[in-house]
Amino acid sequence: MVGKLGAMIDLARHLTRVSQRHILNADEIAAIRALPDEVRIFPPRSTVIREGEVIDRSTLLLSGFMCRAKQLPNGKRHMAELHVSGDFIDLHSYTLKRLDHDIETLNSCQLAFVPHHRLQAMFEAFPRLARIYWFHTSLDAANHRHWVTSIAQAPALERIATLFCEMALRLEIVGLTREGSFDFPLTQTDLGDCLGLTPVHVNRILKTLRGRELAVFRNGRVDILDQAGLRDLAQFDPAYLYLEPEPL
């Protein structure tokens, strides 16, 4: 049975994301809805979890944008991954119990916290859900491999074009795009931290995309003007996002 708190929390985007690949039955949906024990709102640019902190719960992003960030010894910062509404941010902490990076908000975020003992109980009661969430941690790893390869090999123009294509697709799944446009509360410095570029280089690339009438990034919003053209420029293949239905 879903408790009072679980009944009040809107997990629609998370369930939509999971259901993109896996068909859930009513009992599985009820078990997922019963997971959170606390909901909090964090202001923009907050550190929710710090590197090395011992943790006994995982974080589910109900609304907003977050990132995994690594502070380097030379003072520079790298955003290792971006997260959107519906994502489980640190499901891997269920086994690791501490993280080797920070978890930060990019804008105002509503977060639901899931104690690890509740995850354990759900996985024991619903082994299929254990496999489904194992898939999602594997998906995070696939996404990370893609971006490591992109930063190492792809030209800067392709990197930014690919990021815009990926975010448009991920946000479309959870209903947060409109006619090719979506909120994207990053600065040009943030884009550089994501993609291994200087702010000056990012600014130059954004001007190129705008000049080619492919995409415009302005005031925390992306407008994709030519989706086919942007995908062609990025050589975008969404296979690494594993969006196809679960094999029977």
Polypeptide structure, described:
The structure is a single chain. This protein is 44% helix and 20% strand. By secondary structure, the protein is of the alpha+beta class. The chain has two domains: 11-149, Sandwich (Jelly Rolls), CATH 2.60.120.10; 155-241, Winged helix-like DNA-binding domain superfamily/Winged helix DNA-binding domain (Arc Repressor Mutant, subunit A). It has a four-stranded antiparallel β-sheet with strand order 2-6-4-5. A three-stranded antiparallel β-sheet has the order 1-7-3. Strand 4 and strand 5 (77-83) form a beta hairpin. The longest helix is centred in the middle third of the chain and has 27 residues, at 127-153. The relative contact order is 0.14.
What does this entry show, briefly?
The chain is 44% helix and 20% strand. The protein has ten helices and ten strands.
The gross shape turns out to be globular
State the share of residues found in helices, binned by percent.
40-55%
Strand count, sense and barrel status of the largest sheet are: 4 strands, antiparallel
The percent range for strand residues is 15-25%
CATH class of the largest domain: Mainly Beta
Let me know the CATH homologous superfamily of the largest domain. Jelly Rolls
The CATH topology label of the largest domain is: Jelly Rolls
Regarding quaternary structure, how should these chains be classified? single chain
Radius of gyration: 18 Å
Low-confidence stretches: none
Given the helix and strand composition, which structural class is it? alpha+beta
Mean pLDDT equals: 93
CATH architecture of the largest domain: Sandwich
Order of helices and strands: HHHEEEEEHEEHHHEHHEEH
